[in-house]
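Order emerges. For instance:

***
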Amino acid sequence: MRMQLPESPQRPGGAVTRRRLVMGVGAGAGAAALAACAAPGGSGAPARPALTSEKITLTWASPGDQAELDVYVKVAEQFTQQHPNISVVNDAAASAKDKLTTLAASDSLPEIIFRTINDFPAFVTPANIWTPLDDLIKRDQFDLQDFFPQIVKPYRHDGKRFGEGKLHGLPKEIAVRSMFYNRDHFAETGVTAPAPDQAWTWDEFRTAARRLNKPDGSRYAYSMETWWAMWAIWAWANGGEVVDDPWAPTRGTMDGAPVVEALQYWGDFVARERFAPPVAAYKDLSRSNHFAQGKASMYNNGRWNVPNFRRSTFGWDVMLMPRQKQRAQFLSGSAFGVARSSKWPNESWELLKFINGREAQGTMTQLGLLFPSRMSIARGDAFLKSTPPASNSVYLKDVEVARILPMHPRYPEMQTELDKIAEEVLAGTKTASVAGKEMTEQVNLMLKG
């Protein structure tokens, strides 16, 4: 086993066009080989093909910080112990979107590829770099039923819409968020957190934030992520939606009254109430570290922050996001898959099964890095008793109401443009009404392009 760390950032020599990407993944020999092995025969499904006895090396696009990478290195070593002739290289650089695009265009993808939910569509259409997995799952009786269906659905595509059709990746996690809160700040100000199975109303959240906030700026009530999903949660809770159909969007709907109302409510945390830091404040201290260092009392984000927060000197826990007309959270995550171009498709599938097996997910869960995509682990002691936080059941409740942003190849461009507009709402230089119209226009242009 070896780990290949990212190279120093370099400006690419030229843009990777869609045509070049198509050329890079056009030869799907690996996918064809797997399909041949998995296709039903005349007397039923064929037996699993024997793995090669040659000494080979598989490359695994491995994301995350050093702590996460260390886990993947350990998983790779465990796989090689079971298959001594197969070495695994953990390539951190290949997990980056731009790097993956370049590798696809040059037909040099790693055997195991990685993408997050909202980057995934750009690598499915117009050119699909992923090997379909359904026949292999059926052939090997892989326990897909153990995964939360909510996090499996986004990696399906039937040629027209996402969420249906063939499965192209196995989810490594559910990146559902939770509201972290500082128990010491709550006790100091007489604020009582809701029970783990209850959610504050918007009014209750705002009342608590006003009590927690210190007007001199020494402590904010709420450190907040400011990208699209983080205000979409409030829009969904208010009964709104950002597009007409997130699985196959055709138009934006952010000019609707429920979205506009929620966007203004969210923007006022900074622009009027001032119980959240201005965006510029995060240049000196990150959003998560505002919470970790006790400079903010609440923070909504993912489970991967837990190892950092466990080093804090104050007591903390998690609670559900505030509700309005309904409860809502943001669903994201990431998946590993087998590249269509893999020269060792059967061995790559064997590695993918191992990576997404119970043992590997259990190791990640013990570190506190993720909310596991396997229900058996998420509902077991390995997750629920991994403390702090004490209220891990919150994640199980929030996944029930978690929703996705548009599944579309141009999603990253949409987010870039919408985040610029949202910052103007936070600064108080643009109303949510105007912003909602502009956001809808921007998304509509990209959906037509």
